[in-house]
Every structure is written in C-alpha cells, then in structure tokens.
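Q: What would this complex look like in 3D?
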Amino acid sequence: MTTGVDLGQPQAQSVRSDEDVVRVRQLVRAVAVSVKLSLVDQTKVVTAASELARNTLVYGGGGSVEVTVVDNGRRKGVQIVFADSGPGIADLDLAMTDGYTSGGGLGLGLSGSRRLVDEFQIETSAGTGTRITVTKWSR
Amino acid sequence: MALSTEESGRLVALLSGQDERVTTRWTEIVTSSLRGRLSQAELRRQVQDLHRAIVASGEQGTIDLSADSAAELRAALSELSRGRARQGFSATETTISVFALKDVVAELVQEAGGADALKDYVAFSKLVDEMGLFTFESFVRTRESLIADQAEQLLELSTPVVKLWEGVVAVPLVGTLDSARAQVVMERLLQTLVDTGSPYAIIDITGVPAVDTQVAQHILKTVVAARLMGADCIISGIRPQIAQTIVALGIEFGDIATKASLADALRHVLRLNGVETARRQPRRDI
Amino acid sequence: MERVPILKIGDILLVSIQLDMSDQTAVALQEDLAQRIVDTGCHGVIIDITALDIVDSFVGRMLSTIASISKVLDAETVVVGMRPAVAITLVELGLSLNGIRTALNVERGMELIAAAHADELDYQLDDEPDAETATP
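A: Here is my prediction, written as structure tokens for the whole assembly.
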C-alpha cells in the first residue's frame, strides 16, 4: 500500500473513480497511524475523508486530495485538502444542514464530517469549485 | 552556534590533557549542588560520560550540538536529564550539572593563560549554555511524558468494567466525569462488550456527584453506540438531584431504561433473559 | 471489480465483508444478495462487518437498503460485529442505521434470527385455531 513512502511529505491522490476513494481512505489511515492518532480518532478522520472524497467525486466531478502531517509544536495531526473544480456549492448554509442532500445521499457528508474532525474550512464559489480543508489533532 | 576547528581543538586539548582533574572538579561542583542526593560514584560516572562525549565530538573537528557528529553528546545529555527527571530532581538541579563545566573550564583557562584565553572562554561558555538549554528541553519533555503517563494510568484506574453475570457487564462510575474520562469509559465499555460477547451493559452513576449536559451527551452517545453494536445499556443509580438536573436541562433519555439502583438494573436484565429472581418471601410460620 | 462472497449456512445467508469496499462493490453486494435470497428461499441474512474498519454513510445506506430489501423478500437481516470505534464514529456522524437489527457476533445474530423465526412459527400456530373457529 504505502510502504516505503515518506509520510512526512504531503501525499497527493487524484480522485477520479470509486477505487480512488478507497485509496484516499488507505492513505489517510496510514498517515493517521504515523502521527499516532487513537483508534477512534483514526476511524473518525478516515470516515470523514471517505465522505468528503466521495463528495469530490460525485458533486465536484472529480478532483484531488492532499494529505499532510501537521505539527503545532505541541501535537501532531493530519491535514487533508479536498479540491475540485466542479460547480461549487450555491447555498453553503443549506449544504451544511443535517439531512439536506442534492444528490440522493443521506445528507450527512458535509455536516457529519465536520463533527468528526477538529478543524473544518470550506471555500467555495459557483463555477470555480470547492476546496475543503480538515484537520484532526492527536490527543 | 558551532565552535571553530581551532577553538574546539583547544577545548579538547584542555579537557583531555587533564581529564582526571576535570572530572574530579566537575563531580565536586555537581555533588555540592545536589546536596548528596546522588552518590559520588554515580555522579562521577555521569560526568565521565559527558566528558568523553564532548571530547569525542571535538576530535571530529568542530563541536556543533546540532550536527550529526554530536549525536553521542546529545544522547549523553538526554540520558542525564531523563534520569534526573525520573528521580524527581528540579530543572535547576539538572541543568547545573552541565553548567558546572563552565567553572571547571574557567579555572583551567585561567591557569593556562595566553592571548586567546578570554575569547576561548566566551566561545566555550556559549557551547555550555547550548548544552544546558538542550538538557533543560529534554528534562521538560521527560516530565511532560511522565505526566501524560500518569494521567493515563489515573484514567485506567478510575474506570473498571466488571462482569456481573453471564452476558451482563457494569461500569460503576465514581467521581467527576469530564469529557476525556467519559470518552475513555465509553470506549472501554464498548470494547468489553465485544470481548465478552455481553449483550447487556449497566452504567451505574451512583458515585457521580453531578451530571451536566456534556456528560449526559456522552452517556447517551455510549448507549446509542452500544445499540449499533447490538447491545443494550441500562442506566442505574440516578440520584434525586441528578434526576432534577436532567429534567431541568431538558435532556431526553428517550427509551433508554433507567433504574434506581444497580440491583434493580441487574434484576431487570435477568428478567429480560428469562432468569427467575425469586424475592425471599416473608416467614409465615408460627 | 471485487465481489463479496455470500455463504449459505442452513437457512441463513452469511456475508462476511473482508475488504475495503469500493462503492461499486457495495452496490453489487446489494444486488447479489437480493438474488440469493430469492434463489435459496432463506429467511435470515447475517452481515458480518467485524473486518470493516470504517462504515461511512454510503456503506450505512447500503446496509439499510439490504435490510429493507430482505424484509420485502421475507428475510430478517442482522448486522453483526461492528467495532466500537466504528459505532462511536457513526453516532458522531449522525447515522442511526434505522430499521437494522444488530448483534455483537455471528452466534448472537443467529440466535436473533432463530428467535424471530420461532416467533413467526408460534404466531402461525396460534393463528390457525383462531382461523378455524372464525370460519367453522
């Protein structure tokens, strides 16, 4: 899988298909293990990554994911950036609401993943795409 | 902050030329600062280790604490501070072991004299300062990890999960529940359910002095998570004040079973499992 | 694309998910399982997710759909072996898996299905005399 890869460096993964979503999960898992997140926190961040990578694929029409190890001096963490150049999100507040979906899902992708990570930033504008940055810190 | 090749050459010559005298004087100064809390022999060994490491890295050319060639020196310094931190010495008492080298070098430089004496001494003293800071850093790191370990041990101590009956486990919660501890309890309980294959868990909060919204949320989440895994939770030991708080805060326990005491909760579970629990009948003879 | 194997044990179909499923694999499993329920006439489905280290909303939705489909086909679905970390994450995510029965392990799952099936048999037996008295 990711053996022999220097996880200290940012890892990029393009998201073009279902299998890529699986690869994103495996990559995030490997990095989360390397910064010693607890099992529950690993599970949370991998689940969030899975949701957001699927959003990138389904709503953004594909894009890229970058996973980085971050260090604030006291704790280490995993930072993941999901970027696509799709249609963007027209009504962000609505999209962040539990149960709202525009694509036939359960409507938990954005709102749910925000609860699973420590930091969640979203930049979007109609026509230029969406860029979501999430961070999970070790305890 | 590295010493130049000539400076480190002179330092090495100074230190290794009279190594017996250096280590003895160094040990003396450190011993007096620690007021006999470590044996002379042990201090002497530590000081000799440091002395050897400094000379060894100086012989490779320049002494630069952050360079690869100083790896042995750094290891010796961190070992020293780790040991001191674990033995309960203060940060001052630890770093003074390194700073004592300054006094020793000062004496030697004074004796040797020469045109560059002052310049050399300033350079050496900068190196010693750096070594002192490094020692201090690793001292703090060791203490921090000690504290973290202790906090973890405390969490483990305070959250036992006990098996009450075949298929029934209980967590008696005692003391204030903060978010971190509630999380540990939650994970421990759920893991025990899997390990023992128990479909019932009783969370007893008799020993919890107060329940706030956050704690109640954690307990509720535990119950929901247990359900997702195929187990049922019963909450017992809710004291009158806590019941009032729960209602006042508007926390919904929904269809979660709550019982007054641990015994009631166990009886409830056993009845669900079809185990008869006969109450002793009052005696009627005579 | 990889497919998840479906085993038949007595009156029960056992699905043990061992791989990190792509969404396509999950959808294929849903279809395969419906077909097997009809082909075998089984009355119980056990989905073992012990090996799954995450369940996201897509897999969660697949589990719910499988439960609903099998209900329509007169089979009881039990999801077994969910890991604690997965359960905690699902609660945080806000996914409640409504309508899905769960059990700690395969053994407990089989007991649940057997009990559900027995209830049904009892019900039928109880029902019959009533039906006779109603239409003598």
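A: To summarize the key features: The two ends of chain A are 26 Å apart (CA to CA). The CA atoms of residues 29 and 43 of chain A lie 8 Å apart.
Q: Very helpful, thank you.
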